[in-house]
Amino acid sequence: MNSKDPVAELYREGRKQFIEWVPGGGARLDALFHTAPALGELAVGVVYGYLHQRPGLDPRLREAATFAAIVAAGMVGAPLSVHFKTGLASGLAPGEYTELLLQVSAFTGFPRAVETADQLNQLFADADMPSPPARTPRAVTLAFCEAVREGHGAFRISPEARALLRKTHQFQATATAADRVLLECYQQDQPVPRGVLQVRVDGEQIVAVTLFSPE
């Protein structure tokens, strides 16, 4: 490859990113594109060297969109296997894959969704992950909030965080990683949150709640 070739440079950056995310990623790419190395340079360079470096989307959202596109196109096999791994590495939770699949099935049809589900069974088994997976971090967090508001909730939180949850009229919950959710707590008709909680999740359990209050 010519060191001054922009495609070659993108490929180097993309290959580096892929190897960081996927154990044995270099060997995986070499095997996948053994017969057509130029295709590997182009595909890896565009997807991981260019698209994944753009600042417009965070890696989680970019991989979620990629997974949805793969399901919609019926691209089970290598594309699904590869992006299952890179999606996990970029911060998608296992339960988010099944939730995405459910969402996509309404638009792509059940045959493609079922075919994808069949491969996901094997991918979950190969990764030694529970199947079915735990609920998404967002779902676990919102259920926890409702439990606290009803006077329940096994995980102990500070009195300030408990009071905030009980007085909140609207939650804006955004998963930022496979184990973290940012929870904005709004009073009725207020444009600025009364407080923000960072919630850490491990499977179905809440393991930490950190309160950030506006000054």
UniProtKB/TrEMBL annotation:
Residue ranges annotated for the Carboxymuconolactone decarboxylase-like domain, each copy included: 50-117
MF annotations from Gene Ontology: peroxiredoxin activity
Superkingdom as given in the UniProt entry: Bacteria
Protein known as: Carboxymuconolactone decarboxylase family protein
Organism this protein belongs to: Pseudomonas gingeri
